[in-house]
Description:
Blueprint (H helix, E strand, L loop, with lengths): L3 E4 L9 H10 L5 E6 L11 H10 L4 E6 L7 H7 L1 E7 L6 H10 L3 E6 L17 E5 L14 H15 L4 E5 L7 H7 L3 E4 L1 H4 L4 H9 L2
Parallel strand pairs: 1-8, 2-3, 3-4, 4-5, 5-6, 6-7, 7-8
Helix pairs in contact: 2-3
Amino acid sequence: xxxxxxxxxxxxxxxxxxxxxxxxxxxxxxxxxxxxxxxxxxxxxxxxxxxxxxxxxxxxxxxxxxxxxxxxxxxxxxxxxxxxxxxxxxxxxxxxxxxxxxxxxxxxxxxxxxxxxxxxxxxxxxxxxxxxxxxxxxxxxxxxxxxxxxxxxxxxxxxxxxxxxxxxxxxxxxxxxxxxxxxxxxxxxxxxxxxxxxxxxxxxxxxxxxxxxxxx
Length: 216
């Protein structure tokens, strides 16, 4: 299976968002990754439901919605209604994670769990079979364009071992600082999905950059 690529629109040109989405539609991207930030769980505010709805009007690729917010449970249905195909919540924001995962699935969406750089993948062992994807944060969440955290490789290998041992089919998604230099090592460690924001949208040819990531 080729690597799946999920360009993050956090790094796109917001003033020309429709054309950016149309570019992604024509590219070899597999998902459109949308970071939702509330200024509380992470020290930044991005966009909310109206922007997701607007993206969904033009998108031909599934929307991979990453909720970096407190109390995500109260917004799950709203984001599902707005067009999300995948909804990922943060382990650190969900005291009743199993219930949250089940609620996402009951809405007909795939359920993802994101973990911050300081969180151990061991915390997911007991629930891994219920999760469709794990977003391993390879930067501290909140801002785009950050430097990749090198410990991520070992973390991905440890997570892959848990998935294999559990007989789960959970996909591993990497979010933060992904580029053509570290992507091959991430794939070798067990990554299935690469989120790329600045590396795609700040490149001279975003479609070509997406294709190059997929060819790894």
